[in-house]
């Protein structure tokens, strides 16, 4: 799986063969077939493992107490750092996400389970925002978590040129909490101040 991830750095899925993976992993091709049905199964399981790694990271590293803004920004930092650090795996997860939209049956069910686990890890933080009145409660937290994760994926994929990680993430979290309307810039002033304070507090620690 690590070899498949490494090969995905400079190639697309259809350009990689199991022979390439076997060579990269320094194993016989038959060894791969002991654990995976075919190339699609290998890449599918590698992507699912990426979801599990990210979930484990969130569950371990997300702050258990403190202000909601600090918790949310901390989770956003963990997710963004994972996407940047594991960019080939991120691309693989994105590729499988697209493929699963057209897939049915057992693969789709397994994929959905892993995605829901990640959304639940973020939703646990959003529930606190609902309790504080910072996050609207008329939409399920799991749905809001999916929206936030989509924004963070977009940020990791399309906005690498923004001025540094922390300002970019504060902008994403601000957009999530306040929206993209022109009036949101004024409404979001206090939120941005809270996010900046949370970031500064985390840096001091």
Structural description of this entry:
The chain is mostly helical and 205 residues long. The chain has one domain: Tetracycline Repressor, domain 2, CATH 1.10.357. It is built from 11 helices and no strands. The longest helix has 27 residues, at 106-132. It starts with a helix and ends with a helix.
Q: What's the order of the H and E elements?
A: HHHHHHHHHHH
Question: What number of structural domains do the residues give?
Answer: 1
Biggest beta sheet attributes: none
Mean pLDDT over all positions? 80
Give the overall shape, derived from the CA principal axes.
elongated
CATH class: Mainly Alpha
Helix content: over 70%
Radius of gyration: 19 Å
Please outline the helices and strands.
Layout: H1 2-7, H2 18-25, H3 29-35, H4 39-61, H5 68-85, H6 87-100, H7 106-132, H8 141-158, H9 165-178, H10 184-187, H11 189-204
Helix pairs in contact: 4-5, 4-6, 4-7, 5-7, 5-8, 5-9, 5-11, 7-8, 8-9, 9-11
Give keywords:
single chain; Tetracycline Repressor, domain 2; 205 residues; 76% helix; mainly alpha; elongated
What's this model, at a glance?
This protein has 205 residues and is mostly helical. It has helices at 2-7, 18-25, 29-35, 39-61, 68-85, 87-100, 106-132, 141-158, 165-178, 184-187, 189-204.
């Amino acid at each position: 799986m690590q070899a498949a991830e490494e090969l995905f750095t400079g190639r697309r899925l259809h350009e990689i063969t199991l022979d390439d993976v076997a060579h990269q992993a320094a194993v016989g091709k038959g060894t791969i077939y002991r654990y995976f049905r075919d190339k699609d199964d290998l890449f599918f399981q590698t992507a699912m493992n990426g979801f599990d790694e990210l979930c484990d990271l969130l569950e371990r590293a997300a702050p258990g107490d403190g202000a909601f803004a600090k918790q949310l920004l901390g989770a956003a930092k963990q997710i963004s750092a994972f996407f940047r650090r594991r960019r080939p795996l991120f691309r693989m997860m994105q590729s499988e996400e697209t493929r699963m939209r057209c897939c049915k049956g057992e693969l789709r069910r397994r994929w959905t389970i892993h995605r829901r686990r990640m959304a639940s890890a973020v939703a646990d933080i959003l529930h606190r925002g609902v309790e504080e009145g910072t996050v609207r409660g008329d939409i399920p937290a799991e749905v809001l978590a999916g929206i936030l994760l989509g924004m963070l994926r977009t940020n990791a994929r399309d906005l690498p040129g923004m001025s540094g990680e922390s300002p970019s993430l504060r902008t994403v979290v601000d957009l999530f909490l306040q929206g993209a309307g022109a009036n949101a810039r004024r409404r979001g002033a206090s939120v941005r101040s809270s996010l900046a304070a949370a970031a500064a507090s985390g840096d001091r620690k």
